[in-house]
UniProtKB/TrEMBL annotation:
Keyword Chaperone among UniProt keywords: no
Organism: Streptomyces glomeratus
Positions of the HTH luxR-type domain: 149-214
Region (Disordered): 215-236
UniProt xrefs under SMART domains: HTH_LUXR (SM00421)
InterPro entries: CheY-like_superfamily, Sig_transdc_resp-reg_C-effctor, Sig_transdc_resp-reg_receiver, Tscrpt_reg_LuxR_C
Signal peptide: none
Pfam families reported in the protein's UniProt record: GerE, Response_reg
Protein name in UniProt: LuxR C-terminal-related transcriptional regulator
Length: 236
C-alpha cells in the first residue's frame, strides 16, 4: 500500500521530479511545493503520513525550525529531511528538532523509498555512519566558540581585562592606577579603550555588559583591590 506523503523543497524541479518518481512507485503524493518559509503551514494543513522536507543549509541555525513546528502541531507526521551531507551537528540538530531521518539529495529513489517506509514505521531512517556521528554529537556536544562573553573577552588585552574587572568592582581611576601600578592618565586611557572595544558609553554600561554576558566569570580570579591610601601614591 502506498504512503500518503508530501515533498517540500526550495528547488521546485527537484521536488517535482521526486514527487513524480514516487507517484510512479504507487505512493500518494499530496503536494510538491518550493517555498521553505511556508513548508510547515502546508504540512500541518495537509497532514500527510510522511513529509520529505528539503534544506540546502542543514548546518545553519534555524534550518530545522519547520520540523519543530510540524512535530509540535502534527506529531503523527514523520518528517524526513532531504539535504546535502552535513556535519554531525547538522544531523544531530535534525533529530533534536524531531525529524525521523535524513536522506541525502543524491540518494537513489530506492533509498528514498526505503527511508519513507522506515519513517512511517517509526524507525530512524538515516545511513548508519551519519547516525553514529549524530549520536556522538548529541551525547558529547562540541563547545560553542561564538558566545558573546567569549567573543568580547577575545577583543581585550589581558591588561584591559583587568581594567574591566576593576571597573566592574567599582574602582575609580585613582584606585585602578594604584592597584595596577600605573599612572592615572594611563588608567584613564585603558578605561577608554575598554569602553570603545565593548561599544558602550560609560563604565556602568561596561560593568553591566560584562556581567550579563558572563565575561567576568571567564576573566579569571579577581585582582586585589587597592586602598584609597595606596592610590594617592600612584606613579604619575
Amino acid at each position: 500500500m502506498g504512503v500518503r506523503l508530501m515533498v517540500v523543497d526550495d528547488h521546485r524541479l527537484l521536488a517535482e521530479a521526486l514527487a513524480s518518481a514516487l507517484k510512479l512507485r504507487g505512493h500518494r503524493v499530496l503536494a510538491a511545493a518550493a517555498p521553505a518559509a511556508g513548508a510547515a503551514e502546508l504540512v500541518i494543513t495537509r497532514a500527510p503520513e510522511v513529509c520529505l522536507l528539503g534544506t540546502a543549509t542543514p548546518d545553519e541555525p534555524g534550518a530545522f525550525d519547520p520540523v519543530v513546528r510540524i512535530k509540535r502541531e502534527r506529531p503523527q507526521v514523520a518528517v524526513l529531511v532531504l539535504g546535502p551531507v552535513p556535519n554531525p551537528r547538522g544531523i544531530a540538530a535534525a533529530f533534536a528538532a524531531g525529524a525521523s531521518g535524513y536522506v541525502r539529495h543524491d540518494e537513489r529513489i530506492e533509498g528514498v523509498e526505503r527511508a519513507i517506509m522506515k519513517a512511517r514505521a517509526g524507525e530512524a531512517a538515516v545511513a548508519p555512519q551519519l547516525l553514529q556521528g549524530a549520536f556522538s554529537e548529541l551525547l558529547n556536544p562540541a563547545a560553542q566558540p561564538d558566545d558573546e562573553g567569549q567573543r568580547l573577552l577575545q577583543m581585550l588585552t589581558p591588561r584591559e581585562v583587568e581594567v574591566l574587572v576593576r571597573v566592574a568592582d567599582g574602582e575609580d581611576t585613582r584606585l585602578i592606577a594604584a592597584g595596577m601600578g600605573i599612572a592615572p592618565s594611563t588608567a584613564r586611557t585603558h578605561v577608554q579603550r575598554v569602553l570603545m572595544k565593548l561599544g558602550v558609553g560609560s563604565r556602568l554600561e561596561a560593568a553591566a555588559l560584562a556581567a550579563r554576558t558572563g565575561l567576568l566569570d571567564r576573566a579569571g580570579p579577581r585582582p586585589p583591590a587597592a586602598s584609597p591610601r595606596t592610590g594617592s601614591g600612584a606613579p604619575q
